[in-house]
Write a structure and sequence with these properties.
The chain is mainly alpha-helical. It has one domain. The chain contains 13 helices and no strands. Helix 2 runs antiparallel to helix 10 and helix 4 packs antiparallel against helix 8.
Length: 304
Amino acid sequence: MKLLQNRFAACALAVLCTLLWGTAFPFIKLGYEAFAVKGDTGSMLLFAGLRFSLAGLMVLLFLCCRERRFALLGKDNVKPALLLGSVQTLGQYLFTYAGIGFTTGANTSIITACASFLTVLAAPLFFREDKLGAKKIIGCVLGFGGVLVMNGGGGFALETLFGDLCIFLSTVFAAGGNLIAKRVSQGRDPVRLTAYQLLFGGLGLTGLGLLCGGRLDLQNARGMLILLWLAFVSAAAFSLWTALLKYHPASRISVFNLLVPVFGTFLSGALLGEQVFRPAVLLSLLLIAAGILAVNLSRSGEAS
């Protein structure tokens, strides 16, 4: 736990989390191709539900091995885990998958970046030690500017309005999930919370996917391997992320989310052969790095 409380180690681990989440961009596309579900909202929700349910089971298995017994949640942890799972997993990804087919990838990246802004702005309302200062505001502006540069500013239009609104709502749930994770992890085991919140949220998404007529061929070996990787990504990243939020101000950790679309873009180029190595992408990386540095150099909001 001392490693998690170290400020420099926390930054490195936050970057690792965003790198893991960045791999999800190309692997979700590969998963859609393997299962042939692109455009089928029910099957896409089922795909997401199985991903997070498996992730929850992975974390639960880790806990059982660590404790050498079945890792029960405990009566006092049921409501926090349900709340976190409903917001951070079910709500966030329900709106993500509902909107992703009705807007562009550029718009999705830009709007998703708002989650960092929302967390930084809202954190002072809930946590006294997490104060809003000039460096944090400048950092968010630089980071958001980097996302805009990378995506060419996006292109908002009436035909993408529904999708854009859904993605924006997903970012509201993402920001809310960060704040809730910070609150409910105090005095609790963040890994245990992560296991059950992923399980609760994943089962909710699975149920919705089945209700919407979603179907997946679970005998598809390539698809299942991709699904297992995505489950591992969620299990590892969410466990680390929740632990980091327990020991550090939400604004300082959440700003690293700006790196997710950058890693996703580079990895899409490496794995899918997409043309991503452009001057604009490199400039965006510099702006985002400068923004993260500005937020983490601010004096307000020291780790509690």
